[in-house]
Amino acid sequence: MSPTEMEGTDLQPIADIDQLVHQPSRLMILAVLYVVESADFLFLMHQTGLTRGNLSSHMSKLEAAEYIDIKKEFVGKIPRTLLHLTDKGRGAFQTYRHDMIQVLEDLVG
Amino acid sequence: MVKKINLKQIERNIFRDYLQDGLVDIMFGAYFLLLGLGLAAGTAVFIVFSIVFFAPLLQGLKKRFTYPRTGYVELRQGDPGPVPWFVLGSFVLGLIALVAVLIAAGVIARPAQWYRWMPIFFGIWLTGIFLGLALSVGLMRYHVVAGVALAGGPTFALLPLTGKLENIGLLFAAVGAMLLTWGVFAFVRFLRKYPLPTKRDDDVTD
Per the domain annotation, does A90 fall within a domain? Predict the structure, then answer.
């Protein structure tokens, strides 16, 4: 059953979960960025354990949704990719947490 | 089985990772050691004010050694955890202990001797600071430093020294030396664990 077909049923809250945040790799990235001011690419690689390509791909998706802000800069001659959670991303993460808690509580109850 | 994790734990782990290079310990250790030796020698004024160079120097060292290895992070000014309460609580407790010792030793009647007992206060205060830090980040080395400060307070207060600030100076020097040693060990371990990457991982061109 597609999410559209589920509309109007009791399962609708599950379909409403933000898929962009729900993916485990992206959830890790957002969780780290949620508790820091900003972090660079290398730091996120260490914290999440993601490969360079994987992290880069998920970063692009989060940036496209305006959940994170990516700034490329040079520190001396070394390039640095700095990531920062936007207000929209912070809100999406908080909503996701709330929705997941609600859905899981409802499923158990 | 899924390991329990929450945002507070993630934040705590990140702060612990921030300290894993040992540079903060080296800086504070060197500062306390120099301050202590300066107090004992009566030339601590310049060392006290050298704290203003602390932040830029630490950033310079992190930029040189840490960020190329484990990446850059700017910590959030969020919930500071139990540290401020430990700092405040141990400050008050230190003052109470000091007053009690001054009364018990009869120093109130001989105020010229008060400075000799100051390590009691500083020992308890430093213990609170490092105990709070240890409980916040879960690093064993801060428990050890807290223990040294706690034992050092009464020990240095009872040493029969002649100089006015020698007792306090030696307490700071002991805590500083311990912190500096741990910091150097942590720094060497950090350099071994995270060698410089051959290629910059954050050179991403999407």
Answer: yes
CATH of the domain at A68: 1.10.10.10
Q: Chain A contact for B79, CB < 8 A?
A: no
> Mean pLDDT, to the nearest integer, of A55-65?
96
Give every CB contact of residue A65 below 8 A, 6+ residues apart in sequence: A20, A88, A89, A92
> What are B152's two structure tokens?
């050092």
In this structure, the dihedral spanned by the alpha carbons of residues B118, B124, B129 and B132, taken in order and rounded to 10 degrees, is -170
ipTM of the complex as predicted = 0.82
Q: B-chain residues within 8 Å CB-CB of A59?
A: 204, 206
Count how many domains chain A has. Answer: 1
Q: pLDDT digit string (tens) for B136-192?
A: 888 888 989 989 988 988 888 888 777 777 888 888 999 999 999 999 999 999 999
Query: Least CA distance to B68: which residue of chain A?
Result: A42
Give the Cα separation of B109 and B80 in Å (integer). Answer: 42
